[in-house]
Amino acid sequence: MVTAFVSSKKALYIHTHFKYNISMNVKTDSPRMDKLRQIMKSRQGLLLTSDLAHFNIPRTYLSIMEQNGEIERVSRGVYRSTAAFIEDELFSFQSRYSSTIFSHETALYLHDLTDRAPLAYSITVPSGYHSQFLNNSGHKIFYVSRDLFDLGIILMNTPHGNKVRTTDLERTICDIMRSRNQIDIQVRNAALKRYVKNKDRNLDLLYAYAKRFRAQNIVRENLEILL
Known about the structure:
Layout: H1 2-28, H2 30-42, E1 46-48, H3 49-54, H4 60-67, E2 71-75, E3 78-81, H5 89-96, E4 101-102, H6 104-110, E5 122-126, H7 132-135, E6 140-144, H8 146-149, E7 153-157, E8 163-167, H9 169-178, H10 185-197, H11 203-212, H12 216-224
Parallel strand pairs: 5-6
Antiparallel strand pairs: 1-3, 2-3, 4-5, 7-8
């Protein structure tokens, strides 16, 4: 019994001492910690678990930063600096729901085709995608067949400088025309007027998208009035 007790006590000491050494090694390995802080700074305080894998940094560092009160968990795989004052909600949202793309009114906002900042996001997902949380979140969800889902998808900077996936200029215009009954008429008309004045517009590409979505007639009818 005495031998068993001593062995148990020794094992506990070794385990505790081992954990303590790991913790101390992580805390004193400043280059990796500094790298994580640089990533957070570049993203206005956000950090993803995928960042650690990208730079081959063990998740132990994430745990230490959380224990030290330097970061807090926002959602699965997404952490935020406790010193950050402003969260990039667009980037944080898409980090949580990587299968979504910003579209329609939210894409209009990113392309500066509307002055209305989105209170709820307009997102597009492939047909068959299901998320109980999103369904009950109040966000506007559009579904499109999987063969058309990636058409005209680009990376754009949010107002905070982080990159998110959204529809390009022409796909956005095509979308609000196809879903015109679900878009506020004032928002839609103002966006079309801004689009035709945009020096980067590409009407050939717009009509090509419209053909793929079988929306040629409605797109032409609305644009010909303004051109």
